[in-house]
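Record 1 of the preview.
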Amino acid sequence: MADALASDRPSLVREWLLPSRAMKRRVWPAALGLSYIVAVGLLGGLRSDHVVIGLLGLLDLYNERTRAFLRQFLPFILTGVIYDSMRYFYWPGIEGRVHVEGPYRLEQSLFGIGGRTPNEWFLDHHWAALDLACGFAYLVYVAEYLAVAFLLFFHRNAAMLWRVAFAFLIVNVLGFITYFVFPVAPPWYVTEYGLGPAHAVQPFAAAASRFDQLLGTSFFDQVYGRGVDVFGAYPSLHVSYPLIAVWAVFRVPELRWARAPAIAFFLLMCLSAVYLQHHYVMDVVLGIAYAVVTIAIVDRLYARAHRSAERASSIHPAASGSPRPAASVASRSASE
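->
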């Protein structure tokens, strides 16, 4: 095993660190990235992370591996760009339409504990160990999803990475649309401001701040200082991401070791969303539903794309890069 890794090391160095001499360059990905930086600068609020995102377009110019990385992780980049752009139109888009009392009363009737919502119960019943565990989960939930994507990338499982990447984009777009169509105040807002008509407020770490207090850090102040969707309680995308990650690791035999940790993290996130006062139980249910719908959409899209590729391969094997005749492709598909 060690010998194999040692023999592969020069190849990895060449693939990643050395610029390609044979690859045909194109200008538009780098130009698009630089245009993004200029656009944000003109609109206002340019930060260092915007510059980093824009400069990612340069990866397309370097070598084949960096170009493949950019192509396969593009849905993640697009998700970040879409989310950040919401700050320019979020508040006008939801003004006067935020639901405060309705979701609270629904939660009270469906999941109430002695007439109180689970969030209100957790306000009086919380423990340092859970503060740390739930706070940690809330900090790394995106990193957990990206870790699965990177594992798929380095295992060269392009098919599953395509599904994971587009699932991330689709579930977020569905969530963002819901934020505008049916904006809902989170439990912490009700605790702080009551059930009256909603008004514009800054994002708030709520009970997640206990994590920072215990460790003497300011992680959540920094995270929520850049938040946009204050009234985006429905659905809990915090729950959607880990569930899609569970689906992904169960689809890949090489990642069977990650299945138990992925399930445990998903269950922890379901608890954290409510415990930390950011979501109702109903939000968690909706987050699960959005993940299931997204998985169904991605599987259907992938199956359709796969059938189209096989059809093209059987009709024009030379154009598809495969010299095999149609009968060979059909028999291979049947055996799989």
